[in-house]
Design a protein that fits this description.
alpha+beta; Hypothetical Cytosolic Protein, Chain: A; three-stranded antiparallel β-sheet; two-stranded antiparallel sheet; 3 helices; 18% strand
Length: 112
């Protein structure tokens, strides 16, 4: 079975499957959503409010990209992240690793 790519979210610093995150990239000093096949330095971010709030701070982005960056239109970028999240996960379902309730080892019921 092939290994699942794992990335670290720049917002919460937790490691998770790359498919659960949105990949950002910098072009001409401006932050945007990375397209399929975009090469170069990228940063991964969970599309969750807490991660977005922390991860989209300019100081956090500058550290992740190792350069000064700007966000030309924050509202548009948030809309793109939300749209990218809908494409990557089932509509109406949060990513598996961030659903509420106990995890598999905490109070799960059922036969083994």
């Amino acid at each position: 079975m092939p290994a699942v790519p794992v990335r670290t979210c720049i917002g919460c610093r937790r490691r998770d499957a790359a498919a659960e995150m949105v990949r950002l990239r910098v072009t001409d000093g401006r932050v945007g959503i990375a397209g399929r096949g975009d090469s170069g330095r990228g940063a991964s971010l969970h599309p969750r409010p807490a991660c977005l709030e922390t991860g989209l701070r300019l100081d956090v982005l500058a550290r992740a990209f190792k350069q000064r960056v700007t966000i030309q239109d924050a509202t548009e970028l948030l809309q793109q992240i939300t749209t990218a999240n809908r494409v990557g996960t089932q509509a109406g379902s949060p990513p598996k690793s961030h659903r509420g309730g106990p995890g598999p080892s905490e109070g799960s019921r059922g036969s083994t």
